[in-house]
Model the fold of this input.
Amino acid sequence: MRVHSCTGLASKASSPAQTLLRLSGASRLAGSPLAGELRCRCVRAVSEVIPPRRLARVELVAEGPHCAVPEVIATTKQGQTVCLSPSAPWVKLLVTRILNRYLRDTGNILSPFTGRISAWAPASA
Done:
């Protein structure tokens, strides 16, 4: 008997432990890491332009022991999580605007402990 797992791969019926591992892999693909996970959250990043008015939240994650590259994770107003390519020109502009607004409003720099800034998407500028 063959069953299709939630990751879309065909496999034989599996134990609960194997099912849990598959589900944890699926959550990683969806962009939500398990607690304490030390790996990149973004499996694939997109560089296509997403209008800023469609973004509800943008999270900037600096490189560190968990991941060798910086990550830009956006959540759309529809609730979809999308990893953005930090090298895309429009993403660089978006990140610059978020950082400038953060520095202007708080006078702070990135937290040395977390290396993260989480911000609401900027109003149209």
Remarks:
- Strands lie at 2-4, 10-12, 55-61, 71-76, 81-84, 116-120.
- The longest strand covers residues 55-61.
